[in-house]
Inverse folding.
């Protein structure tokens, strides 16, 4: 179970209707396409295991706005994420959406110690934000897996 970041407001928390869960894998939201690819690859790897996927979405709210009033409606974010996560009866997925000021810090604080985190996308030099996320999560002691687009897994 994830804890709530101190500087973020949890918006969406989807309960899982399964019995005892053995393994929980976290997917850090990057873009819709990259996150969909990360979820697809994670589901392939988790087939046959008693596991679930938890997608962490940190939506930054600019400082002029109150934290409770993001520039994009939360319902829009929810609808788009339902498409990304999809449905798989064998490997359930939940989505945790946080409204925050600092995306990286919200993700860091919502992860339990030693979590396994999947990040979608290509590890390109110009994607400093993704590289920074991966580096800091690894420094925090998490196991981070980068799933590149169109990977065979």
């Amino acid at each position: 179970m994830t804890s709530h970041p101190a500087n973020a407001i949890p918006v969406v928390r989807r309960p899982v209707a399964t019995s005892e869960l053995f393994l929980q894998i976290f997917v850090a939201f990057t873009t819709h396409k990259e996150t969909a690819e990360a979820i697809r690859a994670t589901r392939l790897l988790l087939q046959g295991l008693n596991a679930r996927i938890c997608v962490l979405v940190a939506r930054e709210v600019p400082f002029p706005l109150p934290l409770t009033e993001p520039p994009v409606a939360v319902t829009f974010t929810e609808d788009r994420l339902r498409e990304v996560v999809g449905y798989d009866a064998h490997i359930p997925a939940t989505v945790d959406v946080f409204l925050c000021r600092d995306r990286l810090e919200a993700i860091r604080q919502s992860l339990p110690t030693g979590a396994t985190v999947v990040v979608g996308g290509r590890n390109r030099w110009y994607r400093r934000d993704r590289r920074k996320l991966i580096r800091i999560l690894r420094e925090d002691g998490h196991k981070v897996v980068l799933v590149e687009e169109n990977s065979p897994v």
User: Anything to note?
Assistant: Helices lie at 32-46, 74-85, 103-110, 128-139. The mean pLDDT is 83.
